[in-house]
Amino acid sequence: MFANYLPTGAEYFRLLPEMILTAAGTLIMVLEPLTGYRRKRFLGHLALAGLLAALWAAVVAYSSPGPAFNRLIVVDGFATFFRVLVIVVGILTVLSCWDFLARHKAESGEFYSLILFSVVGQCVMVSANELITLFIGLEVSSIATYVLAGYLRDDKRANEAALKYFLLGSFATAFLLYGVAWIYGVTGTTNLVDIRQILESRDVIHPILAVSTAAALMFVGFAFKVSAAPFQIWAPDVYQGAPTPVAAFMSAGPKAAGFAILLRVYLTAFGPIDQSWVPFVWTCALATMVIGNFAALAQNNVKRLLAYSSIAHAGYIMVAVATGTAPGAAAAMFYLAAYAFMNVGAFVVVSHISGRGERKVNIDDLAGLSSRQPLTAALFSVFLLSLIGVPLTGGFFGKFYIFKAAIDSQLYWLTILGLLTSAVAAYYYLRLIVVMYMRPAVDGEEELPPLGGGLKTALWASALGTLALGIFPSAVLNFAGASGAMLVR
Amino acid sequence: MRPYTEIYFPVVVQIIIAIAVAAGMVGGSFLLGKKVRNRVKDTPYESGMQPVGSARERFSVKFYLVAMIFILFDIEAMFLYPWAVVYRELKLFAFVEMLVFVVLILSGFFYIWKKGALDWAPESDKKTEPKPLPAEASIATILNRH
Which of A173, A299, B16, B47 could form a disulfide with A305 if both were Cys (CB 3.0 to 4.6 A apart)? Predict the structure, then answer.
């Protein structure tokens, strides 16, 4: 009687990236007590190899798209896009953390293991086709990230960051789970496609209030993960307190995965009832853009500034979600890819200049960076210009497609306010560039260490990604368009 | 499709029964029980510990560690029960799946063991001979000492 439930080889093949990452993460965990402190870098190379293998697996798994394990997960263009994205973020994080960890004498296998486990969780999230699987992926990813936030355990701010992130995060996921319970109570299923069919069918009358409540409760969990207002309060403290490479990781990987599940659940499962959820996504987009951009103006700490900027960018992507259409989903996907490169790049620069104990993270510490380290300053400027949305960078096309999709869906007010707040954003990004290039270095400033190999690779890769998306956006955009359309079919 | 009020009727019955049982027990003992009051009877029951005192006692972090590890392995072991029920039908497949699961658990166990999470005694105590516990030692005094 169970023969029908036995998974086939093709189904395991579709889960290959997750399996590789889990095996690599567990192997590093087992090897960690057996390697001496001087040989920890070897574990970092192992993590890198695991991530590269998973990247390859994510690409080849798309050669046989389809559902797996009783439709618990589905490998489609959407899942593949985000799997590749979160794995690339993992690779950039591992490359950029070596110098930082060595400087703080904190290199250990746990760091790499936790990064891999968090990436596994994100991969499960983005390919989940069912709410419980989605929740498990979310927890796997979040718990690893909570620990990473407090990784420098002798640092008081890191402890504060981890505790805040953990308490608020568990609270938010409880809301998500409660929403799942509601939707299961109403429809009797947790499968996203089945929920859509039940909500679409005309011969059943649904208590629209109960379905909207479920959508709203789940939105609390998603909005927390992507740091959208009014659930963004944790982000500045956590990004500031967490080790900078971890902040880079948190601001790109979990956020991309969070938006992926938000898009999949809302467009696929809740597509038929969009009139009930578009208003609160609309409000959230507006509030997030305004709060993020205006709060960033007042920051003197670069990490905090980037945290508020990351909130603001969540607001732009929320505009794309508020369209509720396939072009909107495609624009959000493109934006998340561009955002991942430019934001990780910016955080990598900050982790390079931050120095021991992360004391040099104020805007004044950037003074004269153009003469002290011209290459770092130039690459940082590329990331900042992309965050502003200057043409020839990925950020420009990201914003362009989002606002185009918003206008096509008659969201004129959101578009206007989005453009106005982007103009505000230009001020605080340009301020960093001005300090780097126009203010002389403070005398007696100690020399910055040269860029290490991993750091240099991560920086160049992020810069190339940012520019490639700005100059040749069509390939990524076409793929995003095709897979975004699959969500609302 | 049946209306929701009908589908959820059993849930309502369950809630009513739960309330009735709880109220019945409290109310029954209130009505039928003897009411002898003295100072000792009025103190809250705390498993033999002194009920009044500072709640900010310092415990060794090892208690938390052991409790956490216990919960993890306890929950993981629970997955063996449903597996054992369907093991005969699923044959080799179930065996291999559980093997993978157990290997993952054991690698976690190996990790905490090697990391010293199970070493109860501090390094300094290991070198000296264990002292015999005083005769009047109770759980409470041992806990307080840590």
Answer: A299
How many structural domains is chain A composed of?
1
Residue scoring higher pLDDT (B59 or A461): A461
This model of the complex carries an ipTM of 0.83
| Mean pLDDT of the A250-270 span | 93
Question: Residue A432 sits in which domain range?
Answer: 8-487
Buried b (16+ CB within 10 A) or exposed e, A319-354: bbbbbbbbbbbbbbbbbbbbbbbbbbbbbbbbbbbb
Instruction: Please indicate, yes or no, if residue A1 is contained in any of the structural domains.
Output: no
Q: Is residue A3 part of a domain?
A: no
User: Position A317: which residue type?
Assistant: I
Assigned domain for A354 exists: yes
Within 8 A of B107 by CB-CB distance, chain A residues are 26, 29-30
CA distance A285 to A406: 12
Identify residues of A whose CB sits under 8 angstroms from chain B CBs.
1-2, 6, 22, 26, 29-30, 32-34, 204, 207
For A374-427, the pLDDT digits (tens) are 999 999 999 999 999 999 999 999 999 999 999 999 999 999 999 999 999 999
Reduced to 3 states (helix: H, G, I; strand: E, B; else coil), residue B45 is coil
Q: What is the dihedral of CA A432, A436, A442, A445, to 10 degrees?
A: 100
Measured between CA atoms, how close is B40 to chain A, in angstroms?
A: 39
In this prediction, residues A336-341 reach a mean pLDDT of 95
CB < 8 Å from A in window 51-110 of B: 86, 89-90, 93, 104, 107-108, 110
- Asked if the model's pLDDT at residue B42 lies above 90, the reply is no
pTM: 0.88
Structural class in CATH, domain B58-145: mainly alpha
Contact assignment for A2 to B104 by CB distance below 8 Å: no
Report if residue A2 sits inside a domain. no
Q: Do A310 and A253 form a contact (C-beta atoms < 8 A)?
A: no
Q: At which residue do the structure tokens 């998603």 appear?
A: A222
**Stretch A331-354: mean pLDDT, rounded?**
94
Measure the CA–CA gap between A211 and A213, rounded to whole angstroms: 5
User: Of A2, A30, A34, which has the smallest distance from its Cβ to B90's Cβ?
Assistant: A2
Most A CBs within 10 Å, among B72, B95, B103, B111, to test the A interface: B111
